[in-house]
Specification:
Keywords: Membrane, Transmembrane, Transmembrane helix
Structural class: mainly alpha
Number of domains: 2
Number of strands: 7
Shape: globular
Strand order of the largest sheet: 2-1-3-7-6
Number of helices: 29
Low-confidence stretches: 420-424, 666-673
Oligomer: single chain
Radius of gyration: 26 Å
Distance between the termini: 20 Å
Strand content: 5-15%
Mean pLDDT: 78
Amino acid sequence: MSVFLPEPLPGTTAIQAALGFVLLTFVPGLLILRVIRDRFRPIDMLYAVALSVAFSMFVAWLANAVYMQFQIISKPFNGTTLVWIYVSVIGALTVSAWYLTRNQSPVDEICRVFSYVYEYNIKVVLLLFTLPVFGISGALFINRVGENSIALSVLAACAVLPLLVLQFDGKRRYLGLSILVISFALVLQRALLATHLAFGDGMAEYSIAQNILSTGYWVPTGTIGAMVRIGPMQAAYKLVMDIPLLRVFKIAHPVVFAFTPVIGYLLSVRYFSKEVAFLGGVLYVFLPETYRLLPRNTRTGAAIFFTAILVAIVLDSGIQKRYRNFLALAFFWALITSHYGIGPLVLLLIIPAYVCYRILRYFGGEPQPMAEFTGLTLYVVLTFGWYAYITRDTFSFVGSVLIGRALSFLTPTTNTAATNAISFDMPSLSFKVFFYSHLIIAALTCLTIGVLSLVYLLRVLSIEHQVITRIEDIIADDASGVVQNGAYLSIVLGLAVLFPLSFGPNVLSSARTFGLLMVFLGPFAIFAVCLPKLSRGRFVPAGVLLMILMLLSSGFVAATVTHDASRVPNFDRDRIIQSGDPIEQFALYRVYTPESGLFASSFIAEYIPDEGTVYKSKLGAYSTELKAPDETDPNIQSIKDPEDLDEEYTYITQADTTSGTITTGFNGFVYYEYFDLPKLTTKNKVYTNGLSKVYR
């Protein structure tokens, strides 16, 4: 089974794929919002995207439930059954939307939808959208010919673009659009640069969707296997778009996730100045965990996307209450059926946010849009019902992590994404900047949240003082909306509770905490940097710091100047393989060996005798998801002695063969316990991919 990206789609197939993607990702939400809203705003377009995805998830889940319970329809994920279901349901939705809004003038409706587009200069728009095109091209050039100059140029352009926009966009028209194109460029380039799904649970998610397509129906089991976003939705995208399943993971999901920072910007701009909200959105995109991990993790990425939309809806006073409740419920259902960990985690953050809101109201805060007690109760019941009866051990998993972190809060473990590179002496500027920047960002964010919350509370209590007046004058230009909205501050305070988990176990650390929080809290960190009003260009220092963060943490500097270990060494992998020092090579192989591991696993699964034994090194990878449904798992054992190499099949990873040794142990970035690689002249080499070999 090949997991590399296939050749480009033929023209007719590409058109069908594009139409299917529009059908699943845009049309249903636009039709529903046309009934709900009498006019469109920029954020309504993102509501439409999220509502379309949630709607598509629901249709796939409902069709499967009808088949499983009553079997009055064909297997939904066989043939064209689901395709016809989608076409029929969306057709009925189109007719209903037309009937309900038939008295509205179509011309006026079209003008309302595209009224914001008219404000743009088409030449500037086309220039901006060349960035994602070059981002995709950069990944393809690295994978096909080993040329990285285009990809590195895209990183540099993304780093500089925010400064250029702030300098030349005097009317601030292109801020949200700039965030979108940067997000598209970085997310798609990183998603396509890794030609496999072996990181994290990528292969597990792939196998779940593949199994649904093979059997024709979905049986929700376990935790990952019970998420609608993981199995039925991926299968639905594959069937409706008629593209390889791998393309769904590598293209369809990243495109949807790329809208997340724009949602954060349009939410933040309600309370901050456009400049602070813009740089806050850019900060979120520039965090390596955003574009390095989340685009390929459909569970976490989708859950964060729906969380951002949920918060935006809950705080949106521009939608009638009944419609706001409907949309919030739809997005909350999509959230809890996307990730079994983030779902209850978000619920636990909403509860302290609600408590803060009630306390502020008690002291005299003005009423604003916020989840009511009945809505909160519905969220609790929905979460408990889904996770308790559909998934396995979700509450015990989340509870054990939270309780364990609380008990060991004063003694942070070194096994965390926020501390392991500092604890292990990693001689890499990129790693140090990455982790220390997280510490600084968290500190600045919490400090700003504390100060603004205090100002709001003193204002509610009608406490006046010269210092308070001075602070209010300072923040008036850039954050006046924050200290006037208790609901927004309450949600921010509830979210900030999660920050300590970034220094806890890896399972709930950097990717999930910063990936979930900074889409909302990014402007608070930027506001702290921009607070000194030394000149009219006070946003330039923040933009410069973001540019430095991007160039260092993205791997640009490591690939062009320092040539040290990088968080994203794939940009420079050919040089590292050929002439990099051992530290660079080990950093590369941690993210690169799965690529060859999948090929080796495919070969072994095809040729190994039933119940045979596979010997692998400590860093070796064997992906059991690649076996055929009727095959049994081989016996997997680790190489402990050179004599083991004489047994059965042996998969030797690239990291082992670089120095002619086999690494049998490692701790963080410190590798040890190696022995010489014997001459295998008597063996028959049956597979090779670069330096990775399988022997029989």
